[in-house]
Amino acid sequence: MNQQRQKPHYSMCRGFRIPMGFPVTCFESGLSYNAQPEDNFIVTYPKCGTTWVQHIVWMLHHDGEPLPVGKDINLEVPHLEEVGADFVAAMASPRFIKTHLPYSFTPYCADAKYIYIARNPFDCVVSFYYHTKGFVKHYNFAEGTFNDFFECFIEGEVDWGDYFEHLLSWYDHRQDDNVLFITYEAMKADTSNYIREIANFLGSSYLDKLNNAEIFNSILKHTSFTSMSQDQSRWSSQRPKEMTPFIRKGEIGDWKNHFSEDKIARLSDKFRNKTAGTDIAMLWADLIPN
Ligand code: A3P
């Protein structure tokens, strides 16, 4: 039996690992996109709830209309580093833009808005493992185990870099006027409230729409896990049938099904060391080991 550790394969650009097949030129140009005052960025480390919030903002912008089947959320709310600056610049304003960049690399405009969604690292690494294993063409990691991926994650040797560096870079700006810092777990616990928070942050015209119960209920319904997991056509063609679906479980605490005692200790140590001197542990006080 081959015991050798498997590693996902990546392309490299500007020191970042990126999925194979992402045009490096687009990644490069995405970094130099000239952010505009009416731009709204959805910012995450991978697997922290990006797609969920992409759908929420899209529906808010479209008065509660659900994303039609066959429309690609990643073209409607495009991923800056995947499509590049020209694509985004050509969109009508106000733009809704997805990015996985850490703060210092994210195109900045004082009047643009940035919604950052954080997720606890224990569930993030599990979700990221299934993501990486399933997108075979992007990572060539179909045979990789959770043990293999955990080692890469804890070393920060995955796409978009180190989880903690990313989180810290945005956490430092959580109180900036143009940043809304929220967690995946809080959104799950009280989705209605966070849909309102997001609308309020985007502006009064968005919040006003939620006074219409039909709009509000439509957003709540169509962005639920159950609803979103029913249309995975955008991803299913890229993921072999035997792999987990992209919208996978949407749970808090699935990490308990994957972590050994040793892994719990190692990620907890890294968490403690990296976040020392901050209140980040309070974000997930009852959810993860301390
Ligand atoms: P799991 O793999 O733990 O299920 P991203 O969009 O940043 O890639 O994040 C993907 C994660 O968000 C996946 O987590 C996915 O199932 C979860 N997710 C997607 N839509 C969701 C929703 N409507 N509600 C809750 N979780 C959702």
Number of helices: 17
Beta-strand content bin:
5-15%
List low-confidence stretches: none
Largest sheet: 4 strands, parallel
- The largest beta-sheet arranges its strands as 4-3-5-6
Average pLDDT works out at: 96
Tell me which ligands are bound.
Answer: adenosine-3'-5'-diphosphate
Structural class: alpha/beta
Order of helices and strands: EEHEHHHHEEHHHHEHHHHHHHH
What is the number of beta strands? 6
C-alpha-based Rg, rounded: 18 Å
Tell me, briefly, the overall form: globular
Q: Report helical residue fraction.
A: 40-55%
Topology of helices and strands:
Elements lengths: L10 E3 L2 E3 L5 H8 L8 E5 L5 H12 L11 H4 L3 H4 L1 H5 L6 E4 L13 E6 L2 H14 L1 H4 L6 H9 L8 H9 L7 E5 H6 L1 H12 L1 H6 L3 H10 L2 H4 L4 H4 L24 H15 L4 H4 L7
Helix pairs in contact: 2-13, 6-8
The site of adenosine-3'-5'-diphosphate has 20 residues, from α2, α6 and α14.
